[in-house]
Write a structure and sequence with these properties.
single chain, mainly alpha, Tetracycline Repressor, domain 2, 79% helix, elongated
Length: 198
């Protein structure tokens, strides 16, 4: 039952927002009593913390699956961007923005977890791109990783509209890739941009 509650709450939070969805809404959607939810979660904050952990795991499992497909480094980043677009297409308001505004402690926990995971993914991608001749060899990898996650997390935490967020994230990916790309990398970037439908 706990997993079912987390699954339904995750669905509602991402579609309608963390602030607007109540425990009554979740109970009503599941045709169970609110008391049943409180048996597993003593308050809404605990339920939100659990759902964000579930979303975090799902995101990183999807990223691992994409990385395992052995795309080139630039294509890999665009595949990850498509995955995010699909995963969060339902909502009108960015989940990260809502968390930061209404549940800052949970937001900070989520962000510190994401920074460490994303650091690894970004770093591996840059190293792969250098090996493939798509990114320049002489880069300071850790500096570029820092630039990119600062940009992405700043966009996520400060952009309320999900549609605007997707557009800005794609522009950030293009900006990041152009900064690192070799001439071959630019050709691959242009190809990926043409194939990516906003």
């Amino acid at each position: 039952m706990k997993d079912k509650i987390i699954a339904k709450a995750t669905d509602l939070f991402l579609k309608l927002g963390f602030k607007s969805v109540t425990m009554d809404d979740i109970a009503g959607e599941m045709c169970i009593s609110k008391k049943t939810i409180y048996k597993y979660f003593c308050n809404k904050e605990l339920l939100i913390a659990e759902t964000t952990e579930t979303v975090h795991k799902a995101i990183h499992q999807s990223i691992d699956t994409i990385v395992a497909k052995d795309h080139n480094a630039i294509e890999e980043n665009f595949e990850i961007r498509k995955m995010f677009k699909e995963m969060f297409k339902a909502g009108g308001t960015s989940p990260a923005y809502q968390l930061k505004k209404h549940y800052p402690e949970i937001y900070n926990t989520v962000m510190s977890r994401e920074i460490s995971e994303c650091n690894t993914v970004f770093k591996q991608n840059i190293e792969k791109g250098i090996q493939q001749g798509l990114y320049r060899k002489e880069m300071l990898i850790d500096t570029y990783v820092g630039f990119y996650y600062t940009l992405i997390f700043s966009i996520n935490g400060n952009t309320s509209s999900e549609k605007e967020l997707k557009e800005l994230e794609l522009q950030a990916l293009e900006y990041h890739t152009r900064a690192m790309a070799t001439p071959e990398g630019i050709i691959e970037l242009e190809k990926q941009l043409q194939n990516f439908n906003l």
